[in-house]
């Protein structure tokens, strides 16, 4: 497929670009700083664009089969995080103009404000308050997509991210804001970035989770 990747120089984005190329896809990587992307491949085109501008994104969306976003924005204590909603609004607008209707993006477990109430003590009282500004804007972005009828979107929600290569481990998924423990299966509260990329790419050949959010991890 022809894939445009945003956030391609980020830690998860680099795994996604590499795996997509290995699977034979043609990748357009939208980056701010091309020097940060160390991959070179005949099927890789690296372009610079303003992720908050539909006009800047549109030329790089034209003729593509799918948009994949691994964009991340840092937590802020003193001001609201807005990057997720602002970039997604620009992407959806550019997709409409370029006539592309499939997007796969990633957020996190526990974006919905009350979903962390069952999480372990340290996560609930230490980690979630620290990243609440990020989770809140991720949740607003998810809400924005839910109101977008003309785009086939999927939001992938991984738990804590580790800088690990893809494994062959089985995925556990749940159509909610985290993966609950199921009988006999222990659920990992962290996952390798390589496996997140592998899961995102697995959605290209399937209609599973279209217009839905899916929490995922590995066994």
UniProtKB/TrEMBL annotation:
<feature type="domain" description="NAD(P)-binding">
    <location>
        <begin position="7"/>
        <end position="206"/>
    </location>
</feature>
<dbReference type="InterPro" id="IPR016040">
    <property type="entry name" value="NAD(P)-bd_dom"/>
</dbReference>
<protein>
    <recommendedName>
        <fullName>NAD(P)-binding domain-containing protein</fullName>
    </recommendedName>
</protein>
<dbReference type="GO" id="GO:0003824">
    <property type="term" value="F:catalytic activity"/>
</dbReference>
<dbReference type="Pfam" id="PF13460">
    <property type="entry name" value="NAD_binding_10"/>
</dbReference>
<dbReference type="InterPro" id="IPR036291">
    <property type="entry name" value="NAD(P)-bd_dom_sf"/>
</dbReference>
């Amino acid at each position: 497929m022809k894939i445009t990747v945003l956030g391609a120089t980020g830690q998860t984005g680099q795994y996604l670009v590499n795996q997509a190329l290995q699977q034979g896809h043609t990748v357009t990587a939208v980056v701010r700083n091309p020097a940060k992307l160390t991959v070179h491949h005949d099927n890789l085109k690296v372009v610079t664009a303003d992720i908050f501008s539909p006009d800047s994104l549109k030329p790089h969306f034209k003729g593509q089969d799918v948009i994949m976003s691994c964009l991340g924005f840092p937590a802020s204590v003193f001001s609201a995080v807005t990057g997720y909603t602002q970039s997604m609004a620009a992407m959806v607008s550019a997709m409409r103009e370029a006539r592309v209707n499939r997007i796969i993006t990633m957020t996190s477990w526990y974006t919905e404000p009350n979903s962390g109430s069952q999480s372990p003590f340290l996560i609930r009282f230490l980690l979630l308050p620290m990243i609440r500004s990020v989770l809140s804007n991720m949740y607003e972005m998810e809400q924005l997509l839910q109101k977008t009828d003309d785009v086939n979107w999927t939001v992938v929600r991984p738990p804590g991210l580790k800088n690990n290569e893809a494994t062959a481990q089985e995925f556990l998924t749940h159509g909610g804001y985290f993966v609950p423990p199921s009988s006999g299966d222990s659920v990992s509260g962290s996952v390798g970035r390589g496996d997140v990329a592998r899961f995102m790419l697995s959605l290209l050949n399937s209609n599973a989770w279209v217009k839905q959010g899916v929490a995922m991890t590995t066994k």
